[in-house]
């Protein structure tokens, strides 16, 4: 078993209401100077070896299933 | 501006319905041999230098605001 991580974040030009809410809450609580964006982290346990083909498969389903690429960017980290 | 990341994941012993749904969808789509857990990723832009005190501040609000430590683990990555 090997771990591959897929990070999905809102595109820079897209408003991020969740991140804005966190940033606002921090400011109200006295934590100044932080700007937060919120995305999703997928930890994927892969049976067997993480081959090039396996990584390509993960990249494909990250694009089609895990991320909404109209408004989100994703990266595959292995 | 420097980037600090906070990853929040469901604890291993906690059921993860979102991850289970993704794993199930992958299997139905013919992607075998993957087990997915889904969490949240916070990208925090920090004004000025990321000092030890600043990192400690982030760790504190990650624990109190970003994660629900009853059911989630978090890590601060700088």
Characterise the protein shown here.
2 copies of one chain form a homodimer. Chain A is of the alpha+beta class and 78 residues long. The first copy, chain A, has one domain (2-77): 2-Layer Sandwich (Mth169, Chain: A). Helix content of chain A is 35%, strand content 36%. Chain A is built from 2 helices and 3 strands. The first copy, chain A, has helices at residues 17-28, 52-66, and strands at residues 2-10, 34-46, 72-77. In chain A, strands 2-1-3 form a 3-stranded antiparallel beta sheet. The longest helix of chain A is centred in the last third of the chain and has 15 residues, at 52-66. The first copy, chain A, is elongated, with a radius of gyration of 16 Å. The mean pLDDT of chain A is 96. Chain A binds chain B through residues 7-9, 19, 22, 25-26, 29, 31-48, 57-58, 61, 65-66, and chain B through 7-9, 19, 22, 25-26, 29, 31-48, 57-58, 61, 65-66.
Largest interface comes to: A-B, 31 and 31 residues
Compressed to H and E, one letter per element, the order of chain A equals EHEHE
CATH topology assignment of chain A: Mth169, Chain: A
Strand order of the largest sheet of chain A: 2-1-3
